[in-house]
What does this fold into?
Amino acid sequence: MIIYHGSNVKVEKPAIIVQNRFLDFGFGFYTTTNKAQAENFAGKVFTRRGGSAIVNIYDIDEEVFAKLEVKKFKGADEEWLDFVADNRNGIYKGKKYDLIIGAVANDDVFQSLQLYMTGLYTKEQALTALKIKKLYDQYVFATEKALKYLKFTGYEEVRRR
It folds into this structure.
């Protein structure tokens, strides 16, 4: 399976970097099967940090998932919403996974998530709002064990419009 990572640099050796902000699925190396999503993120990172807008390309054999502790969300359901809200609030204390697969709370989804996290939306309102959004996937490699199965195959510089 081919997956992508948007960045402002070439990332031949992925690493888990503890950041100063909380993300959807906690700390990890974030990837997607959607190249356009990776290109979009690469553009954002480039704008914030400089460098170049780069889409890194990796291959992973899905058979290795059986060797990992994997959490796969079926969609933006109640379980996903609670997991993302807890991670984004920095309060997730549940089970640790090697690989987490599920919808990304991108710019289109983030507003509904934010309204839920601040209490302006009930869980039901947030889930209803999420059902009409186009959701992209993310594969988050949350341990070194998981990262060792990623094979860097190349990169592409994103052309800026």
